[in-house]
Specification:
about 20% helix; about 25% strand
């Protein structure tokens, strides 16, 4: 019988990279005041769902979330720690944009990140400081299960 060893970190990074362009994170249905609505607005505010879906897939948080605040809170109770310098696979948390929304995504190395794009409405690769305006990063998070 062959011995198979699951490569946790390698698979985690590959799933993040393969999410680029995926429309999977554009819809989350909820009842809002009794009415069925897509709370992600077709992908315009889907960063937390993108990040939390991948983190839950790998057992790194407890629930899927539609908000940055919920995702960050769950990460805090699931063993994620703040670090000072980004490492491949860490979660980045950016300040609010002009629309008043915070943002989350993944650092993939070489000054690049993957997060959902409000223009493309799907996960996209971009500069780790997020676009032309270089949004301030307010948190860099790491989980010990990602240590190789």
């Amino acid at each position: 019988m062959k011995k198979v060893v699951f490569l946790f970190f390698d698979t985690y990074i590959e799933i993040i990279k393969r999410a680029i362009g995926s429309r999977l994170f554009q819809i989350t249905w909820a009842l809002v005041d009794g009415k069925k609505q897509n709370v992600l607005k077709g992908g315009r505010i889907s960063c937390a769902t993108f990040v939390s879906s991948i983190l839950i897939l790998f057992g790194l948080i407890k629930e899927r979330h539609a908000t940055v605040a919920g995702t960050i809170k769950d990460m805090g109770t699931s063993g994620w720690k703040i670090i000072t310098k980004p490492k491949i696979g860490c979660v980045l948390h950016w300040e609010k944009n002009g629309n008043g929304h915070e943002h989350v995504g993944f650092y993939i190395g070489n000054n690049k990140a993957i997060s959902t794009s409000t223009e493309k409405l799907v996960p996209a690769k971009h500069h780790w400081k997020y676009g032309r305006d270089r949004r301030k990063i307010i948190g860099i998070y790491w989980h010990e299960k990602l240590d190789q």
